[in-house]
Amino acid sequence: MTPPQRRRRHPGEESPPEPAKKQGEGKIPERLYVLTGATEDGDRAELDLVTLIVARSDAPQSATPEQAALLGLCIAPLSVAELSAYLNLPYSVVTVLLTELLTAELVQARAPIVRQALPDRSLLEAVMHGLQKL
Description:
Layout: H1 29-36, E1 52-55, H2 65-73, E2 78-79, H3 80-87, H4 91-103, E3 107-110, H5 121-133
Antiparallel strand pairs: 1-2, 1-3
Helix pairs in contact: 1-4, 3-4
């Protein structure tokens, strides 16, 4: 596949007209509301952008296409930010969908692995002694 060719615009040249958008294209707020549905209590799971999500099982027959896509992506641990980017959905919509999956126990949320702030002192001393011997 060849990349699209760019054409230099000269001053005074009119830009080509924008193609008309088809119905259903773009991010329409009503569509996002339909995706998330009306929640009874309005509670959401407390998910950060870096919270890791892992699927516990395959998508059931009753899952929406977005939920099935989330479960398909979560075979390996992915952060909520990555899921939002892969699905091209806003963070708020993804958290609502994940809350439904968490309540149904189809996914598991876990905190990201935090590395120690400082390395072990004995390791630093070993490295320092090794460098001094060089």
